[in-house]
Amino acid sequence: MEIKCPQCGADVKAIEGQTFLTCEYCSSAIYIDKSKIVFHYMLKSTIDEVAAAASLRRWMAGSSTVKGLDKEAAISGKEFVYFPIWYFKIKQGEKEAIKIQPALPAPLPGIRTMVIPAGDFRFYGQEDAGNPAIKDPTVLYSSAVEWLKKEAVDVSNITQSALVHIPLYIFHYNYKNNAYTAIVDGSSGKIMASEYPSKQEMPYFLVGGGAAIIFFLEGMSMDFPQVLGAYIITAIIVVIAAVFVAERV
């Protein structure tokens, strides 16, 4: 059978059942979906596994995770994959918006909100064929478009669509007998995780709430300038308490 190249419009011969091919005229990589013929790109990975693991440890040591996670978490497994997504450019007035839909039904957090630099795209090539890290899409183009409609996107304004494989490092780790998963974007080093050991907020609420009550009582029971001295002493105590909590939570 023959299909039209989405880049140059030339007739390209395809074998029945073939999904990946290259235009012999303009060398564009093409993906054949049951409902659409689109460009097929690979997003370059800018970090290796060592750098990805370092990014993960830095995130574990950050302000949103429980104290000591970077030292106590034990990596139980890791995998590098090129995950397939449907990539859409959509005209919105004088601007263009990018929308992403996963092309595999995998519960990966943050996929739809990824920022993908189009300048780092390259066409899928013969050297990529047979690479086990490249996962085949199972979600049809038409299904991805239906998801866009549910997000109130006017699909008639789609100006470009493509199948893109993005590099992801998937880390599994254990912390205090619980298993977690974190994903490192191989193109940016950004961490994506929906569940992780987070800081306990209650101690901070107790310190803040207690300080507010003390300030209120001091203001109601003392006159100026005595209350000013009481405020200063209370503020110092609150700061010490906050530092104490931060070092242990």
Provide a brief overview of the structure.
This is Zinc ribbon domain-containing protein. This protein has five helices and eleven strands; from the N terminus they run βββββααβββαβββαα. 28% of the residues lie in helices and 31% in strands.
Regions with little confidence, pLDDT below 50 for 5+ residues:
none
- What is the number of beta strands? 11
**What share of the residues lie within helices?**
25-40%
Task: Sum up the overall morphology in one term.
Answer: elongated
Overall number of structural domains: 3
Q: Give the count of helical stretches.
A: 5
What is the first-to-last residue Cα distance? Answer: 64 Å
Q: Could you give the order of the helices and strands?
A: EEEEEHHEEEHEEEHH
Integer average pLDDT = 83
Structure report:
The protein is built from five helices and eleven strands, in the order βββββααβββαβββαα. Helix 4 (202-221) runs antiparallel to helix 5 (226-248). The chain has helices at residues 49-60, 69-72, 141-150, 202-221, 226-248, and strands spanning 2-4, 11-13, 20-22, 29-32, 37-43, 74-92, 95-102, 121-123, 158-175, 178-185, 191-192. The chain folds into three domains: 1-32, no CATH class; 33-192, no CATH class; 202-248. The chain has 249 residues and is an alpha+beta fold. Strands 3, 4, 5, 6, 7, 8, 9, 10 and 11 form a nine-stranded mixed sheet that branches. Strand 1 and strand 2 (11-13) form a beta hairpin.
